[in-house]
Amino acid sequence: MIVVPIIMTYNEKENIGPMLEAWLKIAKENPKYKFEIVDADGNSPDGTGEITKEYSEKHKNIHLLSSERLGVGRELINAYKYAIERLHADVIIPIDVDFQFDPFLTPKLLEKIDEGYDVVVASRHVPGGSTNFTLFRKLMHFVSDRLLAYYWAGIHEVKDHAGLFKAIRVKGVLDQVDLEKIDVIGFSVNMKTIYELSKVTSKFYEVPAHFGKRRAGQETTVGLKSLKWFIKYVFEIILQTTKIRLERSQQFVKFGVVGFAGFIVNALGLELFFRLGLSPGLAAAFGAEMAIISNFTFNNIWTFAERKIMRALDIGKKFSVFNLTSFGAIIIQFVVVGLGTKLTSDAWRQLWLVIAIALFIIPYNWFMYNKLIWKKKKQ
After folding, report:
1. What are the DSSP calls for 71-129, one per residue?
2. pTM for the whole thing?
3. pLDDT tens digits, one per residue of 27-76
4. How many domains would you assign to the chain?
5. Both 18 and 101 in a single domain?
6. What is the rounded distance in angstroms from the CA atom of residue 337 to the CA atom of residue 356?
7. 213 and 94 share a domain?
8. Which of 63, 90, 116, 267 is least surrounded by CB atoms within 10 angstroms?
9. What is the residue range of 363's domain?
């Protein structure tokens, strides 16, 4: 397994040597993996890249990827592409160079990858994790990580969205992500990456981690010392989390439109079969089956288009599963419409159909569609 640590640097001449030494030691202690170590440097004027270059002359598994300063987001995405295309990475592990995250936690991250997880996050927000933030940074982190990423954007796959240090499986996971969609310059790249990965896998795990003090040097893009970058990053995370919220809301709107069309089909089916002589409960059940066919077709080609089922054999299998899961909706309609019309009269059959769909079937279907039919890919 080829593991590619990506070390993000800009003016880090005091830290890059010890960090490279740390990764060389990790590689030596974990010979089951082949480590290809990348320094993604933003063309540091202090000579950080030159130090890495000297190491690369002695160690063939150390690589310098130097570029103009584009912002940590764009530089990281370029490094992902380099690791995938040039180094044929199986697992990518981005990390800052300052030792605030301990790189020697890596074997625990890889252990979880070996167990079958696709994204393993070094998390400060699970039991055993901790931070060393100032009061100002605690406030900013709470707003960006908890209020914006977790509650507003609705990214619930992990509790720590902002940390760079994580292990990501490449084959079937990161290589399925359109990296051009992660169009960010700042630290919201971490949150946006988690979101894009959540579209292709549900296998996330968080390993507790401590976030400590910098080993040496000064932070370059956080706080008031770099006001221009700081303001950009603040506005960017607000914009990105809002875009995610709108994208997720759009899917639910599509689900609603398809569901409404299914309701029309259902109502017409109920009326048709009732007039053919069936009881209201049975007529509703047959109408529900007509709606099931309609819902499956349009949800597959529209609502869940990014997870669309294409092959005829797969469509047949999934439609069978869809029918089985939707059997619950048929039972609900049979019971609610059947009992409802017993309590009132047959003339109220359409009202009882609306009650059954609004109160029970919509939440039931949304859950089943996401968890069983168009579920996120598992490796």
Report:
1. -HHHHHHHHHHHHHHTS--SEEEEEESSSSS-GGGHHHHHHHHHTT-SEEEEESSSTT-
2. 0.70
3. 999 999 999 999 999 999 999 999 999 999 999 999 999 988 888 899 99
4. 2
5. yes
6. 7
7. yes
8. 116
9. 247-373
